[in-house]
């Protein structure tokens, strides 16, 4: 969440044709009918591969994706069933990251946890992206008083401390992993609404949109075929950055007992039960937290790299 | 904002009157209490009563403790304020210093180190960092206490709950030292993310300013480097930094929920989490309203600070 706030500022402040640094809309890049991100396709990948931070981030993300896909093959032990005789074993050759209070292998739980964390990140960002894009695009495209009202509500949601809002929403829906994903998704939505609105406001005035309208294109067709594809670049950057933030928030909710419930091998939930063993078995606390940090770091590095490549004006 | 808080809290499943009276209460007793609490009135009247009460400083009665919510919140608010101010001071001073150092020695090992640290900082789950700090500095090294506001043997008899501030003003040095020692670990955990963000923003803002002509002139005049960097450059680079610091307060108040839970800090964040679990919605509603009010006041203060930093900014 933390990451989103500052980055959102940078992105909403400069990305998208609506907010060109010079303040002169004439200087803003003029989108053609072809989506920008798609037009730059092969060049983007080449430049991304030359971006050292992005490569590091991409590698971390790739490792997590592979761990999630091959969890059943990689994990040496069952993530749920433990052997009490093996409880709180320190890291060793048989248990690389030691065992927890129920004798479960922490390495196996972390590997299986990557599946959950990745799912949480993708689903929550999917919810934010689809709802936020729909609200922002429709609001900006049609304008008028509904736009004003919707944007004020979005501003209010943006002003709330996001974890507090997520806690309140999970409290309403009831504590579960699915509800935590929904809560994190709702909390992330306003950023997309603002981002898409800024892009759509500028794109809808372009000549090719007027031309599409003159050719008899319906509103929905114009929005989906001509306007939204040109607002893709900032959305791709924001989505990558948001996955890490969503993972962090969902882990926080699970830590507070409002997300995944034991014995689910979710990284935040693993930490929640580990607090008691801080003195006796520090490895129970260390590894799940390291996993969360690495995953978030990976997505942040990749997001930073994508931002530099897709929107060079924002390069640090 | 108030509407959002009100609607969210009314959406929490469960009947507060039934919760307050327990399982063995008769339907008549529950109905009588609902009438007494105004829960059987239409929602718009309940909202009117909520706003009216808020203006009079009356936030209702806690379902759990049966005490006025204002009194309950005010007893805990100072703890959160002290923690937030401490974290903010830590994050601002160290963050600005790190950002300046990083910008002045751009592309040096120091710069890379600071920026790598900042990137790890924003990816850090603060609840995990809190546990690690506790594990290292409290359990292993015994440098700082693991939780609470004062040593167990100390009894606080001050007029307010601002333990550190009041003991400093009254010259109670041992209490002050103990309060400060208890602030360190939760303060550092809470400050990490804002510190990293402030360092990043300060660096990019300083880099822009350091390239300007007046800085070259100042150097050409023979002014010492520190004077140019800290007096001439930093002053003009501060505006975006102040904006970020203002935004971080919301983040800190949200982060306080997790930090207070880990360090058993008797503040408002932990109280809200406990109240959500107990469906004590007058407390949750009042707590969030109070945090929101604090955020509005901080943002107002930031607007005033703008005019002090940049005299060109004038409000009508």
Task: Describe this structure as you would to a colleague.
The complex is a heterodimer of chains A (316) and B (316). With 316 residues, chain A is mostly helical. Chain A has a single domain, classed as Orthogonal Bundle (MetI-like fold), CATH 1.10.3720. Chain A is built from 14 helices and no strands. Mean pLDDT of chain A is 82; it is low at 1-34. Chain B has 316 residues and is mainly α. Chain B has two domains: 2-55, no CATH class; 69-309, Orthogonal Bundle (MetI-like fold). Helix content of chain B is 74%, strand content 0%. Chain B has 13 helices and no strands. Chain B has helices at residues 2-11, 16-21, 27-37, 43-55, 69-104, 109-122, 126-140, 163-169, 173-210, 213-220, 225-262, 268-277, 281-309. In chain B, α5 packs antiparallel against α11 (225-262) and α5 (69-104) runs parallel beside α13. The longest helix of chain B is centred in the middle third of the chain and has 38 residues, at 173-210. The chains are: A mainly alpha (316), B mainly alpha (316). At the A-B interface, α1, α7, α8, α12 and α13 of A face α1, α6, α7, α9 and α11 of B.
